Amino acid sequence: MASTTPQTLSPPAIVVKNKTLLTAALMLATIMQVLDTTIANVALPHMAASLGAAQNEITWVLTSYIVAAAIATPLTGWLADRLGQKRLFLIAVIGFTVASALCGIATSLPEMVLFRVMQGLFGAVIAPLAQTVLLNINPREKIGQAMAIYGMGIMVAPIIGPTLGGWLTESFDWRWVFLINLPVGVAAVVMLFTFMPRTEIKIRRFDFFGFGMLALSVGSLQLMLDRGADNFWFASTETWIELGLVIAGLWVFIIHCLTDENPFIDIRIFKDLNFMLASVMMFVVGITLFSGLALLPPLLQSLMGYPVIFSSVIMAPRGVATLISMMIVGRLSGKVDARIMMMFGVVCMAFSLYEMTKFSLQMDYWPVVTTGMLQGFGMGFLFVPLSTMAFATIAPRFRGDATSMFALVRNMGQGVGISVVTAVLSSMMQVNHAELAARITATSQAVVNQMPGLLVGNPQITAIVNGMVTQQAAMLSYLDDFWLMLLLSLAVVPLILLMRGPKKAARPQTEEEKALERAHAMAD
Questions:
Q1: Among 70, 89, 243, 426, which lies 20 to 30 A Cα-Cα from 77?
Q2: CA nearest 218: which of 82, 410, 57?
Q3: Distances from the Cα of 503 to the Cαs of 4, 156, 334, 336, 509, in angstroms?
Q4: pLDDT (tens digit, 9 = 90+) per residue, 138-164?
């Protein structure tokens, strides 16, 4: 049996000398880049104090990175053709490492935002390019296992980010949240230079107009979400202008891609049903995963009074559960229907979010640990099969554009998710505060018996009661966000049911598949 197994595997698109070490180098760079989407979360209060920024301004440290990465991600396919995958990867990792060092020595908020934008621009190509290389160096039958390895970096890294960031901030200084990338970046560069093969360079025209329209739409959307609450949403002319730019940019981009001979992105990739549905699901996954990671640190620190290091430790089991589930999924890949695994993952996530809607100020930390572990475990069962099915039927010639667009929707999910839950949190705090305060009346038995000083206007009692109301209103607002994330998680169930299952007859037809791929390559 051992001698016949290799003959059943279709050959990979690219043959490398040492696939294991190259995979390790790809994942080292990917983990470093993805980690920076969340590692700064718990350090934001310390950054705000050090850089002299207000609480609503310091969130630009997170969103500036995500927006820059989202805008630059679609460039991956064109840059990889123009520069070659190896050269582009080395430039990206070196640039990201230098930008990390600059973030670590920033002295003001404008400097920090500028350097974070640099991080996002250089880091944008790392994850999709790593995914492309992994798809190319593995046979079709091993794509599930390859995506499990890739998923460990993409999903586990942002989950352990707050834990690592909290430990670095508490033990050393918030600047080490960025400086930690230096040794990792150097190691990744050395390994990539040694083990990554060179690829053919293809000179193709750059579609400046298409890229400009997509960048306009993405940037305007993030700006609208970030500034909407401060501008009272659609009561502001600015919000309407930004919404108009989002719609116009996206519409022109789609029409341009359909009519231009050499568009920036070949949107024929969306004719593949699995890829289209998986992209929508990945957008939702980006919202639910990264929104929760952004919500928990301030909830644990500000409302429940846990120190930074302890709140990061509480969140650590989530990453461990994700790692375990991805190892399980890697072994189940090819043996269990991917749709069944995805459904199981969605159920785990939805149930964990439902349990999170029961959080209260009187609880201890165990509900946070158990719900986090359940959610992390479900994420592993959702992400890996989702990535596998998204690219299972995509032709190799479309992989560059497909991986960059897949990363784009994930990044957009992150940015939109953080902005939306922050806006909902801020809005609902005002609503909940008003509703709770309206129940404190002079005729209330609780006020008469327990807080008589409130009736005579005692300023100290009034301040204490207002503080309690504010605290309860904040907790209710977090619960509103968890309800929103729960509904979004359940909304992807119909998409899973619409996906096409794996074709079992594909494996014996490897010769035919190879012939078709050669024909496509000759046509290109």
A1: 243
A2: 410
A3: 21, 30, 11, 13, 11
A4: 777 677 777 777 777 776 677 677 778
